[in-house]
Fold this sequence. Notes:
The chain is α+β, with helices and mostly antiparallel strands. The protein is built from 20 helices and 13 strands. A hairpin with an 8-residue loop joins strand 9 and strand 10. The relative contact order is 0.10.
Amino acid sequence: MTNGPPEHLTFLAQAFLVPKNTTHRQYEALRAYFVDGLPSAEAARRFGYTAGSFRVLCHRFRQDPAREFFLLPQKGPHPPIQTESDPERERMIVLRKQNLSVYDISEALGAEGWRRSPASVASILKEEGFARLPRRRDDERPAQVRPEVADVADVRQFDPSPRRFRTKFGGLFLFVPYLAQIPFEELLERAGFPGSAMVPAAQAMRSLLALKLFGNARTSHVMSYVFDEGLAAFAGLNVMPKRAFLTEYTCRIDPRTYPEFMGAWFDTMSRLGLQWGASSSFDLDFHTIPFHGEDALVEKHYVSKRSRSQKGILAFLAQDAETRVFCYAHAELRRQDRDDEVLRFAEYWKDRTGHWPTELVFDSKLTTLRNLNQLNQLGIDFITLRRRSKKMLAEVARQPGSAWRRIRLDRVPKAYRNPRVLDQRVQLSHYEGPCRQLIVADLGHENPTFLLTNQMRRSPAQLVGRYAQRMVIENGIADGIDFFHMDALSSAVPMKIDCDLQLTLMASSLYRLLGTQVGNGYVTAKSRHIFRDFIDAVGQVTLTEDEVIVRFK
């Protein structure tokens, strides 16, 4: 089309030569080409077509010269053309008079060879004057395949009758003999854990513990396991509780109940044969559990895995150095309280056993020099790192070679088995009396390592060898954090972090007890190793009158 109507055209002439709708413009363009003999390019330019699109328009007109013009295209769904005798429409009316919904009518028509969508059926019925049906109950609807309503977790519906079933969680039943020897219900009731007639405290905690023991999958995937009969049988319920209940239950537990329950739990585990705390030597560390939400009260803490500070929940963990059993945990530490947590653990151990811990091993960021002085006054041995400064490194560089001595370490890579050590006595601020400082070189680091300890008579090889297990310490704590998914705050089951920590301690002790009784290298094996070899196994469970028999592949 031209940029504007010619000035010499009258208003009535413009109605023909300057069309306003699509079909009229097509008519005038085709007439100019076929009747007036206007060249194709000129007709396309005059009426606003490209040369290619105008050729397509001419081709379609040659194929259908009887097409209708001057009809506006209808927008939206086109209603079906009604005739005096429409058997399909009449069939819809008959079916509606039988109180069938538009979905039922659509399916019935499809079975008879007519394809009509529910929306099309609803449009025709509206034209015929039919109102929408009121919402019907399930028993009023026609018989058809429907989704089944899942059972609700209820201990009163638990069926212990003899039967046989297959479960993905067959390996969990290896822990059943231990749990059967523990007065679980009594311990929870004495500590004050909440419960109900449908899901008592023991069943609720066993449900959470089952998901924690099967550590490879986070609890966010619980909805895919709620129909597994073996998982429900382990918890002592007819079905597993849904994730909404699991989250709600962890919020109902009073945090003051955990210390009493965990003390009774570890006393019972000791009677079952779990050895821990005999040497009173512990590895201590902090762990920041990332928080992925909006909360002004959540502080930023250092996350070693990401080498940066971010919002998270700070947890303190204590692990037995020999058996690698987590024996203490405290969550939700505030920044102003973190330095004194090592003293609170020492007091906890004194109240529990009647004596102070023998030895504590930790890194430089765990506490302050003032608290090191208090540990020394209490008679508690410690080994910790000291932060290096440029002045300290410069002083070490000025030391003659004769001041260093070689030591031999065991259970370390051969390349670092003979490091150099500089043994010194140093005076520290806020620390009364001398402190022993070991400067260790040739350990694979660019700069030497500075160790502080109050153990004056122990050999340098023993002290360095003890702290050389720091890598093992961190790996052991990481095993509990990663395998037992303590970082699951953002999952679909957002458990309270203090409950998550206590479940981790329980699961870790059960794994250690299983590894101890299996023996053959599993005493100190990681939980992930035990899970891979024993727990991650499909089983066939047979319930009899007095036995639970589990067969594995």
